[in-house]
Fold each of these.
Amino acid sequence: MRAFFQKLERRFGRYAIPRLTLVIIGCYVLGYMMEAINSNAAAYMNLNMAKVLQGQIWRLVTWIVIPPSSLDVFTIIMLFFYFSIGSTLERAWGDFCYNLYVLGGMLLSVIAALITYLAFGAATGAWERIGSIVGNSFTTYYITLSLLLAFAATFPDSPVYLMFVLKVPMKYLGYIDGAIIVYTIITNVRYALRGYFGNWIIVIAICASMLNFIIFFLLTRSGTTLNRRQRQVRRNFRKTQKIAASGRGTSSGRAAAGSAASNVVKLRTHRHRCTVCGRTEISDPDLEFRYCSKCSGAHEYCMEHLYTHVHITAQEEES
């Protein structure tokens, strides 16, 4: 599956939208402006499939403009927060993968909305009512929450300051986010079992919005298996690091480190190496590497450690 996504990127990567997070935030700002002009603007832009099939095809796009919540101070803070995590994911994954995650989630929601409308409409015969419920249920709210889950899964130890004071690892916010989603699903299922069939549509909308997270992190974020030669490269590199650390600053230590490093070069020369974990493009061909602008000197890091490592100062570099 990962190879399939890589083939897609090689073929369609040039069509990716750069700075997609900024584009989405801009769409929300436009939506707030339209609601300020006309409080009923959302009713003409939501994903009402009954209206779409009657010719109002602009709803397939304009539902993205509808903001996930009403405008207040808390919403403004959350928009800045989502802009921060979205931009970080965009830099870490690359434009294409980030586009595929966000726009793919939106496309899955549109497909699910159409199927849900046709299925429930045929079962009840209340086509207009079902179309209205679908339009109000399928929004960008849970797609936005899936973005937070993606960030928590990618950078679980990244710190977040709640109320600008309390430092909390991002993974705990991910757990809370996931618990809220599960609780919402369970609550709607309980109401649906009592005969309120509209709650089934809400459950489907939530699951469709989370489907992109499931696809990306159950199918494409699994660990890679190293062959015997790659494991030998990793062992030699770690041995080099250990020798260099124990004999740093001495001629014998540098000589021993150089001897051990030569064993790595003999196996195969790499061009990129993570300063923290020592993985290279040889040991893990799917890794991406970036230089850290805050570290003194030229130090490369894999995406797992790019935003979580301890920066190297000039004094450490000289020693």
Amino acid sequence: MNITNTSTQIIFNHFYKLRHDNKRSIIYSTEKENINSTIHVNESWISKIHPVYAMIFSFLSEPITVADLFEEIAYFLDISEEKAQEIISPILEQDEAFYIEYEGVKNYFPMNIVIPASEAFAKIRIYSPLDFCYDEVDIEQERYYVAPFTSVLMLNNKCVTNCAYCYADTTTSNQEMPFGRLKEVIKNAYELGIMSIALSGGEVFLYKKLPELLKVMKQYDYPAGLLSTKVPLTEEKILSVKPYSPTIQLSLDAIEDPILSKILKVKEGYAEKVKKRYSSTGKTQYDISGSYCINSL
């Protein structure tokens, strides 16, 4: 893969994402993103980098020739084109993870961070060098300055069971987050560069607008991920979330009604309803001990 020719059009590999964190910038990738490309990538990558590199990558948000990139960076950083070439060339052709030292800071990068524009395969996100302005650099601090990297949204505290071992506060009345507020939270998470969002309850399948919520998450490049439930799901509910490819985990606890009635306080027939629905998908594997089953839609 030759991208050192000055007339070659190149682009930032948008499988990776950039986020500014006040005194440093961060490059990261997300799990379970569909990869339909011959370009190899480092999945689940997170590293802190000097903001200057994030600024450089911002000029690569869209296709640009190598020669134009040298010129743009030289002008932006007020350096010679030879110096710009010295800074940029080491990141242009790297098919393995690597690091570069800049101003006493070691910057770690994943493989194929810059690729030929003709081989781009991920959704483009436009960055500006002004997104990564800084007054000082701190690569060492582990705690993030601006926002966490993962988030859990508790949709409600409603349940279909009343588990004897549950730690939840049962004195609080059943509530759920309004759909409009959840959309705002997901949009804000995307703008802050939060890497992943997990959904929790209560019971996620008792959230009436779950399919609509998964659609919003998909719009902002957040996969549905793992949905844990105790609901004996109907075919209608399964089909409503199938377009978003979640992994469904059913916590069954036991397979005998007398035991389930005692520890979950559910009605007789609960286990049969669960087994009938999940076995009908043809994809479910049951743990014979009754501890759980997982079905990937």
Amino acid sequence: MKNSTPRTPSPWISVVPLAVLTLLLYVVIRCFGGDAINGGSQIALLSAASVCAMLSIGIYGCRWTVLEEAIVDNIRASASAIIILLLIGAIAGSWMVSGVVPTMICYGLEILHPSFFLVATCLICAGVALMTGSSWTTITTIGVALMGIGRAMGFPEGWIAGAIISGAYFGDKLSLLSDTTVLASSTVGVEVFTHIRYMLYTTVPSMLIALTVFTIAGLSLDHGSGAHAQLYADTLRATFRITPWLLLVPLATGILIARKLPALVTLFAAVVMACIAMIAAQPELIAKVAGIERLDFLSGFKGVLMTCFGPTALETGNVQLDELVATRGMAGMLNTVWLIVCAMCFGGVMTGSGMLRSLTGIFLRLVRRTFSAVASTVGAGLFFNLCTADQYISIILSGRLFKELYAARGLEARLLSRSVEDSATVCSVLIPWNSCGMTQATVLGVSTFVYMPYCIFNIASPLMSLLVAALGWRIRRKS
């Protein structure tokens, strides 16, 4: 009689699906470049998941029902993120056609000096994320507007997106309202204020490095002339009805976030408010979207819905500006949703087969001293982001994996929670198939591979965590 209990996979076998995924993604990216998200990456993830399933069933006797249940659990956990992503698409369309984003761009072009635009962008996003506790919401709202301002000033897209993401993730890490901050501290069992104060020793130096780089880049990059930005502002004013009243929409959205309302409720309210503002301020544009000359109730209803769920293309008379104000709505998010589902399938199969647990055992064997403990934690955070494609799962797995080991080595729990945040949280946005990387690339309209080198804070954070551990700065052992 065959033993019904599956054997634990060997680390050498467990690494095969990950190697297959890496190889396939390399080929896909070489073939499709920034368009890899449109189908190639999804096929790579499903192919690697198939390899994992065949190995676990054929060699170790794992039942398909176990793998299927793990996949379903992973997809169920990502359902909220998928709905949020669709609402973000609706916000992108409604905030643009209503004139909210164009108004923010016009006023931003008047206030921000091009030489200090990048560093100002980073600081603005950091402040908004610190108050709201959400890097995703910050990037989706103020980040989209700053992206438009930077493009109008002539900055490379990678630099603009890097400054936005760096600031947003810095503020998110240090905010009491941040779900990742609370999750990292609670998983390890550290009081949230203690966790945030201890993060300052790695987070602030990393942010100072980022601000220095963005300041130098802003002063040295050729970002065009002020006349070019003024032309964009004049064209926007000729296309949209620009009024300070439209700023009430992002202001009200910020208030809802500050009141800690659920993300789904806040984002849906932001869409509704933008639709009301659209009807009041831009009736002519609604008629253009609906493809009619005279607006009535049914055609207006149709135009408003089209801005939320479908692509919109408004002619401004400037080709570059036409690309800036074009939106894809909820339909534009479907490739990202498809990618998230495929990524959850791969993460579920790796978890259900036990291969992920087998690979994490390697990290545990590497821990001997303080530096090796921190280095293993940082490496595990990056590894889980690669395998599970989700920062929340990465935070939980990293924290649970090393919690008892840190206690056995006499290391403080706050060191573990900080190391988890310095890797699993901030590096998730650098991985193209991670839910964070996919979302920000879709929202900002910039490929992950394009903005990755310019996310200075996100790159510096894990390195700073290793440096502080090597120096032993503010690291104490328990008796």
Amino acid sequence: MKNAKQITITDQGAEYLRKGQMWMYANNIHKLPDGLENGEVVNIITNANEYLGTGFVSLLSHITVKILAKDNDINIDNEFFYQLLEKSCSKRKEMMKENFNNCRLVFGEADGLPGLVIDRYNDILVSQISSFGMEKTKDVIYQMILEILNDDKQEITTIYERNDINIRKKEGLPLYKKPYLGNKTKTIINENGIYLNVDVENGQKTGYFLDQKDNRLLLRGMAKGQRILDCFCHTGGFGLNGKFGGASKVVCVDLSPVAINKAKENARLNKLDIDFVVADVFEYLDRCQKGEFDIIILDPPAFAKARKDVNKAYNGYKDINKRAMKLLDKGSYLISCSCSRYLEDELFKKMLSEAALAANVSFEIVSITYQSKDHPRSREIIESEYLKFYILKII
């Protein structure tokens, strides 16, 4: 972008950007200009004065620049943000159809808007901002997305900010959660025919795990007549879909009494007969009998929240999968998930193979899917591909 201050990067940093990377790390910064303000829009250049990108600078984070564009003729102005937001919303309306009322409208870097997540739950928008530059731009962003949705006859009464994520500390931003516009914090969404209570103030993430909606439909399609165990059930998304799909028995297990109570509320809301258990999943699996269930779902919280946690997380995933595999007869199914981006696909497959060896079973992979399509995966941003959903058949 013309007239923007320039950050000079190393040759190694330039190589990363040429390969498609959209972040520039502090260890690849050669020179910062004088008078740089946190969150300012800057150009990235090489020592040879070659332009490679424009983005928000963060003076405190290890990710020094989150790139917005790689075209020096583009102005990072209101029109730039409006076009990206309009494209993002139009894409969701087309792909989500009846679920447009409950979907992720903006998924950060994957939509060209680094540091910005916006989820929709009926007339409530929930925003989560994780970059200093986007924080400075948010007033304009909110005004624009309201205009775009209102022009499309989509009623929005509330914008709620869930800025209580630890990554904001690395940007020098405060942690908080509060309404920005309106005061509504609870609603009931309709996800593929199932009604679900959503509390955007106190629920996980932005109120609910929207990223598994497509995978929950996969379970629904294989549930008829099956006995299903939903481990780490949270508010019951998989268990509800299993029973809705005709399962003969569904048991939902979670360590959190609060989560189980909310799952019970959702079951009552949908008039579905489900058994709920408050228990440590590892201990509960040890109490189950072999052949008691036809499908076991493992959807644990992220065992690896940082790269340094990968080895410990690997062993945790291996342990829980081994315990579940031991309970399944031939012809039964294990659905195994990981929401940790640090436990990459090949490592996850390796873990499953080792768990099967330890459990003395064999399996075939029926399918591998990822997060719901309203959470697009970007080739340039490996962090946008984080959720893995494996359906295994014991053979």
